[in-house]
Amino acid sequence: MSADLLQALAAVLPPDGLVTDPDVLEAHRHDQAGWAMAGTPRILVRPGSTAEVQAVLRVASAHRVPVVARGAGSGLSGGANAVDGCILLSLTRMNRILELDTQSLFAVVQPGVVNGSLKAAAAERGLWYAPDPASWEFSTLGGNLATNAGGLCCVKYGVTGDSVLGLEVVLADGSVVRTGGRTVKNVAGYDLTRLFIGSEGTLGIITEATLRLRPRPPRATTLVAAFPSLVAAGAAVLDIMKDTRPSLLELMDRATVRAVEKHRPMGLDADAAVLLMARSDAGGEQGVAECARMAAACEAAGSTFVIQSSDEAEGELLMGARRFAFSALEKEGTTLLDDVCVPIARLPELLAGVERIAEARRVLIGTFGHAGDGNMHPTLVFNREDPDEVARAQAAFDDILQVVLDLGGSITGEHGVGVLKRPFLERQLGSETTKLHHTLKAAMDPLGILNPGKLL
Ligand SMILES: Cc1cc2nc3c(=O)[nH]c(=O)nc-3n(C[C@H](O)[C@H](O)[C@H](O)COP(=O)(O)OP(=O)(O)OC[C@H]3O[C@@H](n4cnc5c(N)ncnc54)[C@H](O)[C@@H]3O)c2cc1C
C-alpha cells in the first residue's frame, strides 16, 4: 500500500480505526455470496463517527482510491466484496441507537446497529421495528438500507425502504446530505431517500437513518397447507392475496421439503408439490376470520391438508421447516442462492420454469421464498469440484433469470445486484434506463470511487 495513503488515513482516524493485518483483511474480503468474485483490499478502516467517514472519503477522493462500504458482510450478491486496492469501510463501530421516540414512533440510528438490536430496543418500549430479513440477528441496518432488504413480513409491512423516514449520507467528496426527515409524509423535493435505499454503497455512505416504528401486532395464528401441484398452490396464493392481509405467506417446493425432511425430519408431506405457510397477526375475531378465509382458499384450490395453530410455540415449530430450508439445501452440496421476483399471478409459471430448467440442466434446484410477494429463492445445489456440474449450474442460473424477465419480473427482489447479477441488469432495465443510472452515478460520484464494479 502507498505510504502516502496510509499516512493520510492515519492522520484522520484513531489507531484502532485502521487495520492492515492481512488475516483480518482476508476475513473481510467477502460477503456471504461465496460464488461472487472478490478483490484484495489495501486497508480496512473503522470510523466511529460521521466526521470520520467524511475524512476517509476526502482522503479516498484525493488519492483516487475505491471505497467499499461494509456492514456485517452478510450480503448474498457480493455487494460488500472488496475490489482490488480498495479501502474497506466498515460501519460496525457506528452502532448506537441515538433516539427512540415513543410518541412520534421513530428511531434514529447509526448504520452499524444490528437489525435485532433495534427490534429489541423497540420491544422494550412496547413497539416494533418491522423489517425482518432472515439475517436480522446479525445484519446491520446500514446493510439493510443499502440493499433494501426484504424478509418474511414484507407481504404486509413492506420492505426496509417502507420503514425509512430519512437518512444522513456522506457523498463521495466527503460532503454530508440529509434526506427526508422525521415525518411520515414528506414530499418536499425529489425523493432522495429512495435513491440511496438499495444503492449498494455506490452513491454514498449511509451514516444515520430515521426509521419508522409501529405498535406491536397481536399474537399471530399460523397455517400450513400442502398442494398436489404448482398451479393449485398458485391459485391459493392469488385467492388469499385478493382479500386478506397475511403477515407472512411463504412457500417451499418439493425439492426443498425433501431436503428439510432428510436432514431434520418433521413429518412434512414430502410428496406434496408445494407447502404453503401463512400467518395472520390481525388478532381477535378478525384474526380468526382471516385464518378461516385463508384455509378456505387453500381447500378451494385443492390442498391435501391444512393445519393451523394460534399457539406461538407451535406456530414457530411449523415455521421451523421454512426457516431451515436454506440450511437443509446447503447440506446437499455447494449452493448458489438466487433471488428473483415475479408478479404474483405468474408464480406458478416461474416455479414450473425452474422445474423445467432443473431437469434440462440436470441440477438439483430447491425453491422456497416469499409467495405473497412473488419473491422466490431458487437454490442451485451442485458439486463445486466437478467443472461440468459447475457449468450446468451457471447455465441454469442464467436460464432462471431469463424466465423471470420473460414473465415481467425482476432479477432481484431483495438481495441486490452486487457482482452476481451485474451482467443481467441492463437486460432488465433497458438501455435508456441504464444510461440514466450511469448519469446519476457520474453526477454523484464523478471519480467513480464508490463501490466500483458493483450494481452498474
Ligand atoms: C442466513 C442469511 C439470511 C438472509 N436473509 C435475508 C432476507 O431474508 N432478506 C434479505 O433481503 N436479505 C437476506 N440476507 C442477505 C443480507 O443479510 C442482507 O442483504 C443484509 O441487508 C445485508 O446487511 P449487512 O450488514 O450484512 O451488509 P453487507 O453485506 O456488509 O453490505 C451489503 C451492501 O450494502 C452496502 N453497505 C453496507 N453498509 C452501508 C452503508 N452504511 N452505507 C452504504 N452502503 C452500505 C455494501 O457496500 C454492500 O453493497 C440473508 C443473508 C444470510 C447470510
Structure description:
The protein is α+β, with helices and mostly antiparallel strands. The protein folds into three domains: 3-90, Uridine Diphospho-n-acetylenolpyruvylglucosamine Reductase, domain 2 (2-Layer Sandwich); 97-215, Uridine Diphospho-n-acetylenolpyruvylglucosamine Reductase, domain 3, CATH 3.30.465; 221-406, FAD-linked oxidases, C-terminal domain (Vanillyl-alcohol Oxidase, Chain A, domain 3, 3-Layer(aba) Sandwich), CATH 3.40.462. It has helices at residues 3-12, 22-27, 50-63, 115-124, 141-147, 154-157, 192-196, 230-243, 254-263, 284-300, 312-330, 347-361, 387-406, 425-429, 431-444; strands at residues 18-19, 43-45, 67-70, 87-90, 97-101, 106-109, 127-128, 164-170, 176-180, 205-212, 214-215, 221-227, 248-253, 274-280, 305-309, 334-337, 340-341, 364-370, 375-382. Strands 12, 13, 14, 15, 16, 17, 18 and 19 form an eight-stranded antiparallel sheet that branches. A hairpin with a 4-residue loop joins strand 18 (364-370) and strand 19 (375-382). Helix 8 (230-243) runs antiparallel to helix 12 (347-361) and helix 9 packs across helix 11. The longest helix has 20 residues, at 387-406. The radius of gyration is 22 Å and the shape is globular. Flavin-adenine dinucleotide is lined by residues 31-32, 68-76, 79-80, 91, 111, 133-135, 139-140, 142-144, 146-147, 149-151, 200-201, 205-206, 414-415, 451, 454.
